[in-house]
């Protein structure tokens, strides 16, 4: 599939296609949450590895999680400090989250707002998308849009002369922190340090 413009990529995502665009960490494969199963198929990924729900803002993502008013205050303090950025928060999922996002534990959902103006511009038009790194399961993340186009010919990739052959993102995964109803548990250490959360 040829690379497409941002307008065509948004239109394709809304029509149910898997798309790819840069983020602040590594380029993403993305689809509407209800089409999350398509990403597992494309990546040949085990369903015990959940996808991340990425949004343009925390306001777009809060409807997908559920918690007490006190918990929302704590979560908001974290996102005020760390978003947009490379921090994924794993929180209790609301009924709005399709089971396909996290088949083995649909009670939780990982959410993130990326520190990428391109990604947020796309997400502002599509709404939150199910995302994961652009690579086949078990292989390193692909870092250029041209490499993604070659590996995933059925995926709509963003066409931009400045992006196609240039490494996108930091190459470092996001830190993943899970809320345990009383504190944060670090599931994956990325560029956001544990101390950053312990201070909040």
TrEMBL record:
Record's keyword terms, sorted: ATP-binding, Cytoplasm, Nucleotide-binding, Nucleotidyltransferase, Transferase, tRNA processing
All copies of domain YrdC-like, residue ranges: 1-192
InterPro entries for the chain: DHBP_synth_RibB-like_a/b_dom (IPR017945), Sua5-like_dom (IPR006070), TC-AMP_synthase_SUA5 (IPR050156)
Superkingdom assignment: Bacteria
GO terms for biological process, alphabetical: regulation of translational fidelity; tRNA processing
GO molecular function: ATP binding; double-stranded RNA binding; L-threonylcarbamoyladenylate synthase; tRNA binding
Cleaved signal peptide residues: none
Reaction(s) catalysed (UniProt annotation): L-threonine + hydrogencarbonate + ATP = L-threonylcarbamoyladenylate + diphosphate + H2O
Assigned protein family: Belongs to the SUA5 family.
Protein name: L-threonylcarbamoyladenylate synthase
Organism field: Hydrococcus rivularis NIES-593
């Amino acid at each position: 599939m040829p690379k497409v413009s941002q307008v065509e990529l948004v239109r394709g995502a809304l029509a149910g296609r898997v798309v790819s665009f840069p983020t602040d960490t590594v380029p993403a494969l993305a689809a509407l949450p209800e089409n999350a199963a398509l990403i597992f198929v494309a990546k040949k990924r085990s369903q015990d590895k959940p996808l991340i729900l990425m949004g343009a803002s925390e306001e777009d993502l809060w409807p997908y999680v559920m918690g007490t008013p006190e918990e929302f205050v704590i979560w908001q303090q974290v996102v005020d400090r760390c978003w947009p950025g490379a921090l994924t928060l794993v929180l209790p999922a609301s009924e709005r989250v399709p089971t396909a996002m996290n088949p083995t534990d649909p009670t939780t959902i990982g959410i993130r707002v990326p520190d990428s103006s391109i990604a947020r511009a796309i997400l502002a038009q599509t709404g939150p998308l199910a995302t994961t790194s652009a690579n086949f399961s078990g292989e390193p993340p692909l870092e250029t849009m041209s490499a993604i186009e070659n590996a995933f010919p059925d995926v709509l990739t963003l066409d931009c002369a400045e992006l196609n052959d240039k490494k996108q993102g930091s190459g470092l995964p996001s830190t993943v922190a899970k809320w345990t109803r009383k504190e944060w548990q670090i599931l994956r250490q990325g560029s956001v340090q544990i101390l950053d959360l312990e201070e909040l």
